[in-house]
Amino acid sequence: MRNIFLCVLLLCTIVHAEGEQRLEINEIPVTANPLGLSADELANPVQIFNRTELQNRKNSSLGAVFDGVPGITNNSWGDSVGQPVIRGMDSNRIKILNNGMEIKDVSNMSGDHAVAIDTLSSDQIEVIRGPASIIYGGGAVGGIINIVDHRIHSEYIDGLFGKYDQSFGGANNQSSSAFSVDYGHNDNLMFHLDGYRRDSKNLSIPGFSVSKRLVESDSEFTRDKYGKDTLQSSDNKSGGVSLGASHFFDSGYTGLAFSGHRVDYGNPLEAGGKFDLNTNKYDYVLEKNKISPLISKMKFKLGYSDYDHKELEPDGAVGAEFIDKGTDGKLEFVHSFFNKSPGVLGFDFGKSNFSKSQGAPLIANNQRNNFSFYLLEDYFVGKHKVSIGFRHDFNRYRSNDFTSDDGCTVAYTDSSDCAAESGTELSTNFGKTNKTFNSNNLTLGTTSELNKQWKLSLNLSHNERAPAHNELYSYGHHHATETIEQGSRDLKKERSNTIDAQFKWSNQKTNFTFSPYYTDFPSYIGLLNSGETQNHLHEGEDESEAIAVYKTQNIPAKFYGFEVQGSLSLPNNYGLNIWGDFVRAKNKDGGNLARIPPVRIGTGLSYQRNTFSSSLDLMHVFNQTNIGPYELKTDDYTNMKLTMNYQLPMSNDISLYLKGDNLLDQEKRDHTSFLKDKTLMGGRSIMLGVTGDF
Fold it and tell me: All domains of the chain, ordered by start, with CATH?
């Protein structure tokens, strides 16, 4: 704690030596929205993170970036992997985009699979819900996350400019660096180069990795099975580079980009176990303006991804390998066919090939084809805006022959002789399968200014989602997660109906927002713990282990909850904010759904003077007792964070920052994580960094 207070004292001393300086804040457009509307003009809740706020949030995983954002939680796998959970929904109900195009990886298959992008090089991150989300994929009932960079520039900027960032510290003793360089030449060419690296050690944790509840419920576990004070195999090394070029002409621009990303991270469940993820991505963009009196803009995007993910044993042998290669395209027109207000007509198409080339059988190799068309229209009546969206998706799957390795019906000691222990070695044979799904999505949203202080937004939507290939074709033992996952080729498409609202009140010094929602699923695709177990003997062990069997099923379900947040400007450059969120999810056949976030409340005190800004935030996460079948309760905790940012007086382009996390050194477990009873989140930590522009 002494180091914290020394850093605080040093920064405060520097700040008070400076004179007053006016700061300007510009409105940032939502770049994922082709209509170019600002956040307040969209008929849905939108959150935008950029500049200093994004700098303060950047973290080892995408899920951790959103820690403390109302309505969003982190499904973590140790420190290196974290997937965002929006209103209790994750995986295939959330679309993760890069510059408006979906990121191809296998993160939706399992919690141990990282999202194939690092936010170190990003310029802005957007969270989108409601009607506008329909243009980025059907069934994204949770929402859209769009990570924005400028590898292909949409506007010409003359000359050479760039930025850099370097940081050290944290509970994982991390060092990270990132840079980007852009050059505009001859009024019509722009070039881009960026790179980043991250090196994290094993995570420092405040105590035993395994929870008391797990030890009491399962004698196999000890409190220190995966580490004490340090989480085993939680290190991370990643890096990437991107190149881009744009050419501008009288009515638009075109551009090409390449990006490569690699990350090696440990598996906390297996000492010395590793994951090796590699992805290469190629993108092309063409945009033309003023096509005709009725079409103001045409944009065409085409991308190709080559993704490879290996799960390595401690001796370096490949235990499993997942390969996904595919092409995606998007063609859209901003038009005024039906009224003077803007609208978007678009088409998506794609083809992907997935294979699991090494390791025990888990999922059938398969090919996926998709085609979609969508329409989003805005209508203005006085101070009221109405948005109507429609999307139709066509998905076709073709899978190969497949024989699973389910396990043994009893415990055994010899990997070659399950039968000697009076057991049966289970396996299931599947032939080639073709599956076709047609789904429709419809949204209706309104935004109304009731008076100078009050604004009301209301959204209604019907969403349909085709089952994902892992939900259809997975059937076997996933060693990295210690689960047996059984998909179903008989799954029906997921269907849901949602109503959500936003009540917003604001004046010059105060704003307050309340956002309730309710989603009814006549057909919800859930991966549910069946209560059954099957036995597997791992290499190097003397006795087989009972593994829980999870089955993918269509069930009726409902989600409901709310987010609330408010801020107040106080005298002497201080500010106060409060927020909270609540979500419940139930199986309408009986019981709760598992891994649903608990209630959270937060508050923060901020201070800004001259070029110095700081914030001290408290978030209390309540214990989760509304648990699903075979799930353990999770204890509450309070997380205290501190952020400080200071722009150096000798240069307006260099800033120092400090980030403190878990300053109370409490045991934190993410209830949404499959590992929540086996691993802890990081203990008390401080990170220091420098960032600048040129």
Answer: 2-693 (2.40.170.20)
